[in-house]
Design a protein that fits this description.
Blueprint (H helix, E strand, L loop, with lengths): L11 E2 L7 E3 L2 E2 L1 H13 L5 E3 L11 H15 L5 E4 L5 H14 L3 E5 L8 H14 L4 E5 L1 H4 L5 H7 L5 E6 L4 H10 L7 E4 L5 H6 L4 E2 L8 H12 L3 H18 L4 H11 L16 H14 L11
Parallel strand pairs: 1-10, 4-5, 5-6, 6-7, 7-8, 8-9, 9-10
Antiparallel strand pairs: 2-3
Helix pairs in contact: 1-2, 2-3, 4-6, 9-10, 10-12, 11-12
Length: about 300
């Protein structure tokens, strides 16, 4: 439970790692290996697997298990590994967390349960019950665009009383909410407050956040690490410069969807396959050419002959 690799609070850039696929239920193993080494070489501070960008909810149980095992084995404790265990089934979330623990992960990440509409009373009960069952420290994941549910301040306040809950990834994109969370977290100095939308990374860290879980760090990890470090050091002019580059990635590569765009870009760079999980289709030739043009404009293009398809 008290893994020394997991700093509290956890700080820095923790990319929500893509899940490279070779088929509908087949992992692109070589692509995953290259991707892990690519982001680690960029100086990231951890990895978050099986999240939204990693298409976790779309993957089979067996494939999720394989991603956990292969990722933890390759990372080999160089950085903490966080595993998304969100599921519509309470028991499946716990079982996946147990597999994450067995595989060598340091923490789990849980969004609100989706499909059935619930209120804050039910959500607080769910978090309390789940935290009691989790074999690893747990981060909450505020993702209202996907779950249709917000971890409201009162629910966060209740979660602060649970020793096994150690942080919040906020992907709501609402800075008022982010400020509310930051003020609440003052009661738990071991809690980590991480921003999801990378367009807000610099501002969030300047305001007291601990870092970001930013999809673009799959593509250009050093840029996001540099932005985090500039914001941590309160170097506002440098933050402005680097944040503009991050904005440029978000506004261009994400035009065909976050994970589809990132997978396409990484395929063009020779890192992994561009195949998304169902129900999303593979990139068409026109979309691929558009991404190649964006990569050239961003100064990230590699030799087109290295592309992985």
């Amino acid at each position: 439970m008290n893994d020394s690799l997991l700093s509290k609070p956890l700080r820095g850039i923790i990319p929500p790692l893509l899940t490279p696929l070779a088929g509908r239920d087949q992992l692109d193993v070589a692509g995953l290996e290259r991707l892990i080494e690519h982001v680690l070489a960029g100086g990231v501070h951890g990895l978050f697997i099986l999240g939204t960008t990693g298409e976790g909810p779309s993957l089979s149980r067996g494939l999720r298990h394989e991603v956990i095992e292969r990722t933890c084995r390759q990372v080999a404790r160089r950085v903490p590994v966080l595993v998304g265990v969100t599921d519509t089934s309470f028991t499946e979330s716990v079982l996946l967390a147990e597999h994450a623990q067995d595989g060598g992960a340091q923490a789990v990440v849980v969004a609100a349960p989706f499909y059935f509409p619930i209120g804050q009373t039910e959500l607080r009960h769910y978090v309390c019950e789940l935290a009691a069952e989790m074999p690893l420290p747990m981060f909450l994941y505020n993702m209202p665009s996907h779950t249709k549910m917000v971890f409201e301040p009162e629910t966060l306040r209740a979660a602060l009383e649970l020793p096994n809950v150690i942080g919040l990834k906020d992907s709501g994109g609402n800075l008022v909410y982010f400020h509310q969370a930051r003020r609440l977290l003052a009661a738990r100095p071991d809690w980590s407050l991480l921003i999801g939308p990378e367009e807000l990374l610099g501002e969030a860290v300047l305001l007291g956040g601990h870092g970001g879980v930013c999809g673009g760090a799959n593509l250009a990890p050093r840029l996001y690490v540099d932005l985090y470090e500039a914001a941590f050091c309160q170097d506002v002019p440098l933050v402005r410069t680097l944040q503009e580059r991050v904005w440029a990635i978000a506004q261009s590569i994400y035009g065909v969807g976050v994970h589809r765009g990132l997978k396409g870009a990484l395929s063009c760079l020779g890192i992994c396959s561009d195949l998304p999980a169902d129900p999303f289709p593979r990139l068409g030739e026109r979309e691929r050419r558009t991404i190649e043009a964006h990569l050239a404009t961003l100064g990230l293009i590699a030799d087109p002959s290295l592309a992985v398809v």
